[in-house]
Structures are given as C-alpha cells and as structure tokens.
Amino acid sequence: MNWKKLPALFLALMLSGQAQSDPETDYLALQKLYQQKFPDIELAEFKDGVYAIDAKMREQWLEMEDFPAYEIAIDEGEELYNTPFANGKSYATCFGDDPGVKSGYPRFDEDLGKVVTLEVAINQCRLDNGEQALPWLIGDLARISSYMAFASRGKHFDIKIETPAARAAYNVGKQFYYSRRGQLNFNCSGCHQLNVGQMLRAERTSPTVGQATHWPVYRGKWEDVGTIHKRFQECNSQVRSLPLEPQSDVYRSLEYFLTFMSNGMELNGPGSRR
Amino acid sequence: MKYLLIICLIVFGQLAIAAENTAAEATDFAVLIAQAEEKFAESKTVGHAWTVTADRLGDARKASAAGDMKLAKANAKEAIKLAELSIQQAQVETKLWQQRVPK
C-alpha cells in the first residue's frame, strides 16, 4: 500500500459518489430556475434576499435600514480591526491596507486542502500574531467581519473553484445543500429553491442566489450580529438535525457552495433581518 | 412465633426478588443505553444525527439517575429507533440528493 496516494484515493472516492456537473453549470441552472420563477425580478436584485420578492417586507426592511441595528457592530469592528496586536502588528499585516477583501472569500487553500472563510482568515491572523482565536458565532469576530463586509460593499463576489480539490470541497457543500436531514426531513433546497418565496410559518423563504451577499447579519432574535455559520446551525436545529461545529469542514464547504452561487453579485453586508 | 417466622421469610423473599429485578433492569438499561450511544455515534459519523436522538438519550440518563428504570429504558429504546432512522436517512440521501439539483 502506497500511503502517499491515500489523499488522492480519498478524493477520487468522494468524487465517484457525487454529481459531477461543474460549478459553472450549477450556477447557470440555478439562475435559470429563479428567472423562470420570478421573471419580473432582475437576478442582481436577489442580493437583498427575500426583500427582492416581497414588496411589503421590503418596505419594512428599508425602514429598518434607515437606522440599522448593525451600525454599532461596524464601529466596534473598525476599532477592533485597527487596534494593534501585542506584537505591534495588526489585521492590516494580514489583509493589506484595504479591509474590503470579503469578495474573495471563501477561498480554497491548496496547501491546507481546506476552504478558508473570512472568519477563519481573521482568526488565523490573530493566531499567527500570538493572539487568541475569537468565538465563531457572535461577538468580536462577527464585529470585525461586519466591518470588513461594510468595507467590501459595492464589490462583487469573485469566488474561484479551479482545482479538483477545490471542486471536491464545493461538491461536499452542494451535497449538504440538497440532502434532506433532521427528523423533519428537510433540505435547504426544498425551502430556498423548490418552495422559494412561500411562507414558512411567519417567514417567507429566500432564494439561494444572493444568500451569501449580506453576512454577517443582525437578527432581532439574536440581538447582535452573527456569522453565517450561526444561521447554518439555526437552520439545522429547526429541522431537528444536530448542528455541526461552526467552521467545520462541511459548513465551510457549504459556505463555499453557497457563495459561488452568488458569484458576481454585489456585496451589501452587514445586513439586518428579523 | 411460627407465624412470625413465616411472615419474615415471605418479606425477605419479596425483597430479594425486588433487588434481583432492580439489578436486572439496571443491566438491561446499561445494554440499551450503550446500544443507543453507539447508534447515535454512527449517525454523527454519517453526518445525519438528529437533535431528538440526543434529547431522548439525555432523558434516558435523567430517568436512570432518578431511579425510574422503566422510563429510562423506554427513552433509550426510542433513542435507538431515532438513530436508526437517521442512519437510514443518510443512506437514502446519498442517492437521492442529486435528483434535486436544478438542471
């Protein structure tokens, strides 16, 4: 047995069980689906999520945007971002002079063999400079991420899937999105594609396209800004599926898939949702 | 005196039977909870664990700690059933998910 070939063998096994359509084909098929379902809505408008579909909800949301609850998080995030580490270096050492780098995240790191989300990159920057990693879901990390998202506003997602390993990671996220899970036997696509725009209790379901543009998000029920992985966990719990760890490989892959489906769309984070 | 001795023997016998039953129930529960935990771990490995399975496992442990072995065993059995269903879901979904991808 040549142990050095194990990673390649593992990758081949993973790929053999999965649909091999390429990400670009998936992307175009999904755009076609929403154009058919909502012929009067421009795809670019889906950056506002469900508010592109529901005029009344949009009106309420626009009123919320007059004095957005996430504003404090942006200010606090900016202060945290610009506070030097104990070693005198700062986040700018890792990300450069422009903190608006969100349009390139998540990205696939070939050396690590993993998807790197913006939150992972922020914490990695801290660890590389002798600081403690921050909690993933809410708090200072979400605030720094909110500031970086704000600095990225107006840019467009440019997510790249260029190698077999990156494609394998994308496929893990894709499989997760289309698989039914939990005791309620729901899948993400059931709400956000098949029944998109329908009422689910008091909420209208949003389209997959545009779901990644506005994170982190301030949600009334969280009373704070939270990362997209907090929402993944919440969605999973709602269908009685045991949530995965935030920034686990599978959730990172899910974010990779989801963000690629918003490729080319304008970033408008942080956002506010009920 | 003779009657007192008979009554003592009966009471002692009943106590011995009850103790034996309790020990048997505890053994049954230990087997069931081990099975439930194994199945739950398997459902996690295949990425389809359910929150309700974790809930029933917790309920089983609580009931056992409170000495309600009947309820403890019922919850452990329920946890096994739920974990098996979630594993079945994982097996089915390995094939079905691809059909939902828009073409």
Can I get a quick summary?
With 274 residues, chain A is mostly helical. Chain A has helices at residues 6-16, 23-37, 55-66, 71-82, 91-95, 118-128, 140-151, 164-178, 188-194, 228-238, 249-260; strands spanning 107-109, 114-116, 199-200, 203-204, 217-219, 224-226, 271-273.
End-to-end CA span of chain A: 55 Å
Secondary structure: number of strands of chain B: 0
pLDDT < 50 stretches of chain A: 1-18
- Largest interface, C-beta within 8 A: A-B, 30 and 22 residues
Could you name the CATH topology of the largest domain in chain A?
Cytochrome Bc1 Complex, Chain D, domain 2
Question: Would you mind describing this structure in some detail?
Answer:
The complex is a heterodimer of chains A (274) and B (103). With 274 residues, chain A is mainly alpha-helical. Chain A folds into 2 domains: 21-67 and 162-273, Cytochrome c-like domain (Cytochrome Bc1 Complex, Chain D, domain 2), CATH 1.10.760.10; 71-151, Cytochrome c-like domain (Cytochrome Bc1 Complex, Chain D, domain 2, Orthogonal Bundle). Chain A is built from 11 helices and 7 strands. Chain A has a 3-stranded mixed sheet with strand order 6-5-7. A two-stranded antiparallel sheet of chain A has the order 1-2. In chain A, strand 3 and strand 4 (203-204) form a beta hairpin. In chain A, helix 4 packs across helix 7 (140-151), helix 6 (118-128) crosses helix 7 and helix 8 (164-178) packs across helix 11. The longest helix of chain A is centred in the N-terminal third of the chain and has 15 residues, at 23-37. The model of chain A is unreliable at 1-18 (pLDDT under 50). The N and C termini of chain B lie far apart (91 Å). The longest helix of chain B is centred in the N-terminal third of the chain and has 44 residues, at 2-45. By secondary structure, chain B is mainly α. The mean pLDDT of chain B is 89. Chain B has one domain. Helix content of chain B is 84%, strand content 0%. The A-B interface holds A 17-19, 21, 26, 29-30, 32-33, 174-176, 178-183, 185, 187, 189-190, 193-194, 237, 240-242, 244, 250 and B 44, 47-54, 82, 85-86, 89, 93-94, 96-98, 100-103.
